[in-house]
Structures are given as structure tokens and as C-alpha cells.
Amino acid sequence: MSVKKQFIKTKPVCKVTFTVEAKEANNAAVVGDFNNWNPKEGEMSKLKNGTFKGVFDVTKDSSYEFKYVIDGAFVNEVEADSYRYNEFAGAENSVLEV
To answer: pTM score > 0.85 for this model?
Structure first.
């Protein structure tokens, strides 16, 4: 799993690329504060090597809680900037700082 950030100098956004290795999975999405926790808005494409990848524009100078949804299971990003406990979920979420 990984998160790559590309800051756009001419716009107040950051292009964030999420990558998840899930060879056996049928589908994956990234859900979080930046897409209202909506799996449809966070769908990732499966590459030939079995990795899922998605690129999303998020507003700069913000912090976002997020998780991956892999075949219906919620998974944290191991390379997240930090983790934050969420009372609604009753668990820690990954945190993205941009």
C-alpha cells in the first residue's frame, strides 16, 4: 500500500495516488472525508499485476481521515501520515495530511 502526493502549483489542490496490493480482491475503493465516505466516488482500478490504483484531487492545507474498502472489508493504510481514533467507527482511521 502507498500514498503519493503531487502538489499542483497553479491550483489549491493536491493529486493523491492511492495504491493497494490486493491480487485476490475483486474490487477496492478509498473512502474518506474527501469523498463523503462514498465507495462509488472512491473506486480504484485494478491493474494487470493485481494492484488497485486511484488518483484523486483533494484540497490542500487540510487533513482527511480515510480507509480502503477491499471486497467490503475496511483496511487502514500502513504508510498513512498518522492515525486518528473515530468514535463513529469505533476504530482508528488513516490520516492524510496535504
So the answer is: yes
